[in-house]
Prior knowledge:
Blueprint lengths: L7 H18 L3 H7 L4 H10 L18 H11 L5 H21 L2 H12 L5 E4 L15 E5 L2 E12 L6 E7 L8 E7 L5 E6 L10 E12 L3 E2 L5 H37 L1 E2 L2 E2 L4 H29 L5 H25 L11 H7 L10 H11 L3
Parallel strand pairs: 1-4
Antiparallel strand pairs: 2-3, 3-7, 4-5, 5-8, 6-7, 9-10
Helix pairs in contact: 1-4, 4-7, 5-6, 5-7, 7-8, 7-9, 8-9, 9-10, 9-11
Amino acid sequence: MAFPPFTEEHTLLRRTVRDFVMKELYPFRKEWDDAGEWPAREILKKMADLGLLGIRFPEKWGGAGLDWWAHAAMVEELAYCRNGGVTMSIFVHTDISTPVIAEIGTDEQREEFLRPAFAAERIGALGITEPNAGSDVASITTTARTDGGDYVINGAKTFITNGAFADFIILAVRTGGPSHAGISLVIFPTDTPGFSVGKKFDKLGTRSVDSSLLHFDNCRIPRRYLLGQENAGFFYIMKNFQGERLVGALMATSGMEVQLNDAIEYGKSRTAFGRPILNFQVWRHKFAELLTQVKAAQMLTYHALDKMNGGEDATLEISMAKLFAGDLAQKVAYECLQFHGGYGFTEEYDIARAYRDVRILPIGGGSSEIMKEIIWKWSGL
């Protein structure tokens, strides 16, 4: 059996996504970074019309009913937009906020939030990180107090991608006692009175999408917006992280391929000492090493994806893939920028943006240090 098992159907999907990317995203990659925002609603609506927002989710709720391999094909092609902020914003919607509703939401919640999300009528975000609680999810302090048939929410979230324009947030709140046992997940509509968006952080990379500080001041939502069981939110968060981290590894490997291809093309036409710089052995050997390492990262990621697609527990493999691919992405971006010389240090070429954008990969969705802890724990050594 061929591995990875991409088929002609996947090839057609790739072609659809690539055509969309080159027409709707790629031409505006620098403009949106400079503006600090991108037209998310307009673009997501066009993606919805192509059936791209719910590829791996049931048709019953507006998805395409395909699998992780089809979704991987889309993720890999989106890398050609050469703007990490745009791809991150898209994946927050498709792979971080909506999967929780699909997996543990009620039919009523799916009808109210999931179907509109796949149609780009409602945009999602995930609200976990707080000013004093990042990787230590069990330490969140945003509270949801029961009052009759409602929750009353108070607290703050930070570094929330899509937070400035999302219509709903999958929100981690404390409904019980201290530590992980008192955390729940709720669906929070952002038109709720008492909700406000604070400052948007001025970031090193992914500049086309916001990372915002959010405030919750006596926000009242119906208890029917509770996702799953009360006080079981920590378990749901840890499970949801697996899909997020897998997509992070896919983003890293596909992004590295784009950067290497762009650099090699640049090296064919850029000359020094009377010949193309790609003809120098030092760079041919460097690219040979990088191409080999990227292929290794890709195959590790595909191995994790295959287990995930088969319904197996892929926590160990996904953690390894995210660690390896996320750290390697830093090296590839560095070497590709170095290859461009002084031009790599300017905004004239896409490598400058890539160099900034990839820095989030070993941080977001669980840092490399957290991945190492998970790998050690799950390796059984």
